[in-house]
Design brief:
Length: about 110
Amino acid sequence: MELLLAFLVIVEFIALVVLWRGKLRLKEELAHLNHKCNQMKIAVAHSQVHADKHREQIDTLDTYGRVMQMHRSGESAAVISERLKIPLNKVEMTLKLERMKKHGAQ
């Protein structure tokens, strides 16, 4: 009986050691995964900043094209400003830049 009891104590001790080592491995893996997760969050934030920057550039080009299209169809700068909901000086600057581009190319 004492031999059986000693055997069970040894088995229990071995099981505890195995569980403890497993816990340590899981802790290390969790720390590694948390680090990777933080890196991914940073990468997503950076890509969002770049996407916003490109979206602004596309919006600017789109606005430029719409201003020029409306101007070619005979709309005044004031009407373009009102319809596109952009400042009048921005419309006037766009038209001035277009004139400078055309005159500079000749």
